[in-house]
Amino acid sequence: MADLSEIVKAYDVRGVVPDQWDESLAELFGAAFVRVTDASAIVVGHDMRPSSPGLSRAFGRGAARQGADVTEIGLCSTDQLYFASGQLGLPGAMFTASHNPARYNGIKMCRAGALPVGQDSGLAEIRELVESWAESGPPQRGENVSEGTIGERDVLSDYAEHLRTLVDLTSIRPLSVVVDAGNGMGGHTVPTVFEGLPLQLDAMYFDLDGTFPNHEANPLDPKNIVDLQQRVRKTGADIGLAFDGDADRCFVVDEKGDPVPPSAITALVAARELAKSPGSAVIHNLITSWSVPEVVRENGGTPVRTRVGHSFIKAEMARTGAIFGGEHSAHYYFRDFWNADTGMLAALHVLAALGGQQGPLSGLVAEYDRYASSGEINSRVDDQAGRASAVRAAYQDREDVETDELDGLTVTAADWWFNLRASNTEPLLRLNVEARDQATADAVRDEVLAIVRA
């Protein structure tokens, strides 16, 4: 039996195949998923990794043997699976390891309506069942429960049509768009979503290849957008878009090839969504830029600050009825998309905003990119708690700052702030700094890192 503590994470299942988990374990997860959600039917999809089709089918077999009818939607992005869960009203499972290397795979699970399944919302119970069935396998769900059916359904065109009903791009000026799919699922979804729109598509790495032959499918790492930046500069394109492996995150570069901070995209999309629904709440995590709550207030909305992580964002979306939420990691959440995250819908908003005026993207986003930042800096430490305590001690008695511990340690002064958080999965401390000018941001960064790395 695999050590499930190594592969069952806070929000999903993820590990090396077949070393840490395999199809036999995927079948147990399928059975446990049906038991915990009490589902009579589920929907299952998968990405382009070599192990994904087999793992997905095994999960479906386990679910069907517990009496659930299984709808397989095949190759899809994670937000396409969320669409299917929301549109069909079924619990869902997506087989992907996002941007992790090819030998990894995982399961992102949700209840009907794309409600997340995490440690506090069913994942712990699923793990317990799988562990209890390790020797003898799962018992029958009930005497009168017959095996469920397994069928196929293509929802890609319905997904694309739904997104295009949420953002109108039919009347924008023609735009030249470079898209780097990173050999991930963006290569599957982008052509259908963009079909018929006034967009000249320059496709990079659209071949589905779970070995990621060109670069890692993680656009938040600067080295992975170098090819995109060069193509935008060389061709004179209006914008560049980069998707991660399962295409639920989208990163943007402007016409100069310069990265647009995800906080600026959050602020831009928030302003557009508030124009549709004045007075609504907008969720942002505590390491997005100061510009996000400022723009939300300027556009008549109510900013709501929350912890980092999709389960916290989605919980706050549901609690507040927020119209939109954004994270520094380029995850974007929409009330009109079952509170789930979809990088594709955020990308359509940016394209609509850009194409709805005559200026370049750099000028458009300048209004939303107001401060200097460090980006996220990771420090590998032996004693996370001890080094974090040392930083806390250095600032707790200063009269010119305020501190809070909603998620890690946040220290805020008049002209700067920083957040220091421990990674849940690695011996890392993550530092984010923002200030009114770059010199101050650099000075605060160096001061904190000197303590962290002492």
TrEMBL record:
Keywords: Isomerase, Magnesium, Metal-binding, Phosphoprotein. It comes from Streptomyces abyssalis. GO terms for biological process: carbohydrate metabolic process. The keyword Transcription regulation does not apply. Belongs to the phosphohexose mutase family. Residues 376-449 form the Alpha-D-phosphohexomutase C-terminal domain. InterPro entries: A-D-PHexomutase_a/b/a-I, A-D-PHexomutase_a/b/a-I/II/III, A-D-PHexomutase_a/b/a-II, A-D-PHexomutase_a/b/a-III, A-D-PHexomutase_C, A-D-PHexomutase_C_sf, Alpha-D-phosphohexomutase_SF. This is Phosphomannomutase. Pfam families: PGM_PMM_I (PF02878), PGM_PMM_II (PF02879), PGM_PMM_III (PF02880), PGM_PMM_IV (PF00408). GO terms for molecular function: intramolecular phosphotransferase activity; metal ion binding. Its cofactor is Mg(2+).
